[in-house]
């Protein structure tokens, strides 16, 4: 059973179709870690152009999916309630395998550092327990309508 449904996720983060990539949250320890799931289907709009006849999820969208999972973890912290987490930096991103239609991507996020208006996480995406992508993501947290 999911800890958070797609609707609960959309109540927390501002992302909407076609760029809300988290299907559900499997587990979470607020302020420490989260595991979430993205079910990749052939119906994803990006597969129309990436690549016809050889559908592969773009690496930048794998990073976006990791960032959405991380933002859920950050925004579930009481000090960041009703705020928005903006991706500020991506460090040491590595892509090891392709993600294709039918894959179930497990997103594992671990909080490394949290300060007043920022957070740093270690992010790993896996398919069938094999690492497909890893990165360190830096977030700036601000009011929902802030211009940063």
TrEMBL record:
UniProt KW Phosphoprotein keyword: no
A Pfam family it matches: FabA
CDD domains with a match to the protein in the record: FabZ (cd01288)
GO MF annotations, alphabetized: (3R)-hydroxyacyl-[acyl-carrier-protein] dehydratase activity
Stretches assigned to coiled coil: none
Entry's localization field: Cytoplasm
Alphabetical GO biological process terms: fatty acid biosynthetic process; lipid A biosynthetic process
Active-site annotation: 50
GO cellular component: cytoplasm; membrane
HAMAP family per record: FabZ
Protein name in UniProt: 3-hydroxyacyl-[acyl-carrier-protein] dehydratase FabZ
Source organism: Limosilactobacillus mucosae LM1
């Amino acid at each position: 059973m999911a800890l958070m449904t797609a609707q609960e996720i959309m109540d927390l983060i501002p992302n909407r179709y076609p760029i809300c990539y988290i299907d559900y949250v499997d587990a979470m320890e607020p302020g420490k870690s989260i595991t979430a799931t993205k079910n990749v289907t052939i119906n994803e709009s990006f597969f129309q152009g990436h690549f016809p006849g050889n559908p592969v999820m773009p690496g930048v969208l794998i990073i976006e999916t990791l960032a959405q999972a991380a933002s859920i973890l950050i925004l579930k912290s009481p000090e960041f309630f009703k705020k928005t987490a903006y991706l500020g930096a991506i460090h040491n991103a590595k892509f090891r395998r392709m993600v294709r239609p039918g894959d179930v991507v497990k997103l594992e996020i671990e909080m490394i550092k949290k300060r007043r208006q920022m957070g740093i996480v270690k992010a790993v995406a896996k398919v069938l327990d094999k690492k497909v992508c890893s990165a360190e993501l830096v977030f700036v947290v601000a009011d929902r309508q802030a211009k940063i």
